[in-house]
Specification:
The complex is a heterotrimer of chains A (about 290), B (about 240) and C (about 325). Chain A has about 290 residues and is mainly alpha-helical. Chain A is built from eleven helices and two strands. In chain A, helix 2 runs antiparallel to helix 3 (about 65-90), helix 2 packs across helix 9 (about 225-235) and helix 9 (about 225-235) packs parallel to helix 11 (about 270-280). In chain A, strands 1-2 form a two-stranded antiparallel sheet. Chain A has one domain. In chain A, strand 1 (about 135) and strand 2 form a beta hairpin. Chain C has about 325 residues and is an all-alpha fold. The chains are: A mainly alpha (about 290), B alpha/beta (about 240), C mainly alpha (about 325). The interface of A and C includes residues 107 and 270 of A.
């Protein structure tokens, strides 16, 4: 009975955890998966989003509501960020991987330090009425601070997926990943589409930030633990697959939860990476991706 | 005479899309073969399968009687299958002559003889004057020539020229054609992929036309040019532009 | 610089390093100097794969940490001498490079970069959970005493690191000037073209990855001796990964002198600023420098110098 109890709870919290990871990885699924820009600064932007939500919450605004409003300024930041990137590299036609990775690495450090300077290194959290209470169903006990942000993920992903498959600009965004030249022939400006996609990814960062800060307090360097994990999710999902992102994130979340429950929490950080290394070695196109 | 290259039932798929095949094609030693077809018809895919850059999903490729289907590209290169790339891929960060030393490092040429050999090749393509220029500083024509020069270093038995004349002026096209002819006279079989029709027709002894990954016509240049199907898919497309 | 001149300079530097402890009294200089030299080794090792072949390794600290813990293990288990530790660390580093390379180098560079990030966490987690290696709290390593000739352990380990730095630079230079370096540069420029020229690209990349990993791990080997304590946080520190990348990039990745220049510059600045200003601003400074170089001077200081020379030359030609 103890085993069943443990396993069921690990499964439930693993799925919840996975949903939250998916939210963090979603921005990268767009920038890296579709645009092939290795934006290693994304987790740092997520944490910046979390701090923005904390600020709003200090004025008594609900974190999720705050995040929804904050998507607009974050979208604008994303546009500007892409413009800078494009001017520095793509338009001069020398955007090699090493250089763009390094650029984003530098940006991520600057975001982190900016947060340290503005807020110090102490942990920050939000106050919501449901923290401390739990959802109970039979043997399963799941704190609301996990459940609520976890439910946000499928909603956001569904919205994004509908946008990508049903709207004109969403389809254009997916097309830019495949064939830029064909797109420009058909009268679209690939740069504008990419800029928009980058803005969208950055806007998603603030939603992910809200989810993370509801789950638990954050500090300016909290993005680092997520960096490898979100890359693991994106690669496992197969580059650019939005539903795959959710599935891959849940696989990693559940694996981590089981390792935590049955082995030791100290092994958990290695799980995502071991899965990532395994994926890269065996199925470099991801579980849900098609072979190129 | 037995064929130097024998391509039997070669197929290449990308995910669910079949980009090539099944294709059967043979090449005689010293032959000049033109490979034509609209964009995306699988010409470069076929060449990538032949040179070993892509692994074919099905079929076999035989070179000089030896099955090379499983051999990696660098082994095929050393055996004598050379190629140039559609978009020139110079080794940037190196001088022109150093570009030629890269393939030479893997050939049994004495250290003292290398520079001389490299200069010989550079002269033959008309790049001798640019020997120490950085690869980044070359013009479009010079890049095309470097591409060919590098392919010549391995003393190929088969040379694939993938759109070696794209973007060149009429005079420059004649230069490159003359160069390829001289090579052919020395016994090198040449596969020419080209969109510039008059050049392929003038150069080739035999022409093969690909469409959506399959061979739709094969024969003497004149016959292929007059083929109804070829005219529809190929010249039709051209005229429509 | 010819080989003869290079060897001459190397010998002079080595001799100066050996004499220095007799002249300078304050061990702090050697304590700080050790770190600068350690980064010369790391940056030089990184550049063999990252600079020559163009494959970014973000997981330098995995290789460094592997070296640190190999040495710590050897001290604890056998009280092995420093030379054995260094050689063993280099061996482990090469093996690690070979395995990582084999798993990921068949696909594009981005994946290799990501996999190296993953490697750090995997190794760190393993060490965290190894009681023998002290787990999260670390291990105190009491190394055998320094040879009597040296003024103290810090001076000794400084000289060891100086020798390692010269070895590392010698290896990098030998690769750069040989056919191996030429093939790696060809791979960096275009892998398909290199392959079409007969270069066995996968084998060359694996070799570069192994040598690079070996050199970086070698840089970690004297650390237990130097610090007398090892823990996962400092052995697998992000700062090492960051510096390993920043130093060659700032110095210039095309030649062996670039990483040396970058390492000496950046590490010296860091050694001075950690004393005077906070470590946060230190990281900020590195971050800004990284962006500035990558955007404005992608060929590093070496590129700037070459450009300057060219300009001066042109001006001379016109006047």
């Amino acid at each position: 009975m103890v085993f069943l109890d443990l396993a069921l709870n690990a499964l439930a919290s693993g799925i919840a955890l996975g949903c939250i990871y998916a939210l963090v990885a979603l921005g990268l699924a767009i920038t890296f998966g579709l645009l092939h820009i290795p934006n290693v600064a994304h987790p740092a932007l997520v944490i910046a989003g979390a701090y923005a939500v904390v600020l709003a919450n200090m004025r008594g605004i609900d974190p999720i509501l705050a995040a929804l409003v904050l998507t607009l300024p974050f979208y604008a930041v994303g546009l500007a960020f892409y413009e800078f990137y494009a001017r520095a590299f793509e338009r001069r036609g020398r955007g090699n991987t090493l250089q763009s990775l390094t650029l984003f690495f530098g940006v991520s450090l600057i975001v982190e330090i900016a947060l340290v300077v503005a807020f110090g290194t102490d942990l920050r959290s939000v106050s919501v009425p449901y923290v401390g209470r739990s959802f109970e169903l039979g043997l399963i006990v799941l704190p609301y601070r996990f459940l609520v942000p976890a439910l946000l993920a499928p909603a956001v992903i569904l919205g994004l997926w509908l946008y990508m498959t049903r709207t004109h600009s969403g389809l254009a965004m997916r097309a830019v990943a495949h064939d830029e030249r064909a797109l420009s022939i058909s009268g679209h400006d690939p740069v504008a589409i990419k800029r928009h996609a980058f803005g969208l990814a950055t806007a998603l960062a603030v939603l992910a930030g809200a989810a993370l800060v509801i789950v638990g307090p954050v500090d300016p360097f909290a993005g680092r633990v997520h960096l490898g994990r979100v890359f693991a999710v994106v690669v496992l999902a197969g580059l650019g697959s939005i539903p795959g992102t959710l599935a891959a994130a849940i696989i990693i979340g559940v694996a981590e939860a089981f390792v935590t429950a049955f082995l030791s929490p100290s092994w958990a950080p290695g799980v995502a990476f071991a899965i990532l290394l395994g994926t890269l070695a065996l199925r470099p196109n991801g579980i849900f991706g098609t072979a190129r | 005479m037995s064929a130097i290259v024998e391509i039997r039932g070669v197929e290449k798929r990308f995910g669910a899309i079949r980009a090539l095949g099944p294709v059967n094609l043979s090449l005689q030693p010293g032959e000049r073969l033109g490979l034509i077809g609209p964009n995306g018809s699988g010409k470069t895919t076929l060449i990538n399968c032949l040179s070993g850059l892509f692994a074919a999903n099905a079929g076999t490729i035989v070179f000089e009687g030896r099955d090379i289907t499983q051999e990696p590209a660098h082994v095929r290169a050393r055996m004598g299958i050379a190629r140039s790339f559609q978009i020139p891929r110079p080794f940037t960060g190196m001088s022109v002559i150093e570009n030629l030393l890269v393939p030479m490092d893997y050939l049994p040429i004495e250290a003292g003889a290398r520079e001389g050999r490299a200069m010989e090749i550079l002269s033959s393509v008309g790049l001798a004057g640019r020997r120490d220029a950085p690869a980044e500083a070359l013009s479009q024509l010079e890049l095309r020539k470097l591409e060919l020069a590098r392919a010549l270093v391995i003393e190929p038995k088969v040379l694939v020229a993938d759109e070696a004349m794209a973007g060149l002026s009429e005079g420059e096209i004649n230069d490159v054609l003359a160069l390829l002819m001289r090579l052919n006279e020395r016994g090198v079989a040449i596969i020419m992929i080209e969109h510039i029709m008059h050049a392929v027709m003038r150069f080739s002894q035999r022409v093969v036309c690909l469409e959506t990954g399959r061979i739709i016509a094969e024969g003497l240049p004149q016959a292929v040019a007059q083929d109804k199907h070829v005219q529809k898919v190929y010249f039709g497309e051209r005229a429509g532009r | 610089m010819s080989w003869r001149n290079f060897l001459l300079v190397a010998l002079l530097v080595a001799a100066a390093g050996m004499v220095l402890p007799r002249v300078l009294e304050n061990p702090y200089y050697f304590f700080a100097g050790y770190v600068v030299l350690q980064y010369v080794v790391i940056a030089t090792g990184w550049n063999i794969l990252g600079g020559y072949a163009g494959y970014t390794n973000f997981g330098t600290s995995a290789f460094f940490g592997a070296g640190v813990y190999t040495a710590a293990f050897l001290i604890k288990a056998f009280e092995a001498p420093l030379l054995v530790q260094v050689l063993a660390a280099a061996g482990i580093g090469m093996l690690l490079g070979l395995v990582t390379g084999y798993l990921t180098l068949r696909i594009q560079g981005v994946y290799f970069a990501i996999a190296t990030v993953a490697l750090v966490v995997v190794l760190e987690t393993v060490v965290h959970n190894s009681d023998y290696l002290g787990g999260a709290s670390g291990l105190t390593t009491i190394a055998p005493p320094a040879p009597a000739w040296f003024a103290g352990p810090t001076q000794y380990v400084f000289c060891v690191m100086l020798v390692l730095a010269l070895v590392a630079v010698g290896i990098a230079r030998a690769i750069e000037h040989s056919w191996v370096g030429r093939s790696l540069r060809a791979i960096r420029a275009s892998e398909p073209a290199a392959e079409a020229c007969g270069v066995p690209t996968l084998r060359m990349k694996l070799a570069a990855c192994a040598i690079s990993g070996g050199v970086i791990a070698m840089a970690g080997a004297p650390y237990p001796y130097y610090a007398s304590h090892v823990d996962p946080l400092s052995a697998f520190s992000l700062t090492i990964g960051l510096n390993a990348l920043a130093m060659p990039l700032i110095g210039g990745t095309r030649s062996w002198i670039g990483p040396v220049l970058g390492a000496v510059l950046l590490a010296s600045v860091q050694q001075i600023t950690t004393v005077t200003i906070s470590s946060e601003f230190n990281i900020l400074a590195v971050g800004l420098m990284l962006i500035a170089f990558v955007v404005l001077a992608p060929e590093g200081i070496l590129g700037l110098v070459a450009e300057l020379r060219e300009r001066v030359g042109r001006r001379r030609a016109t006047t």
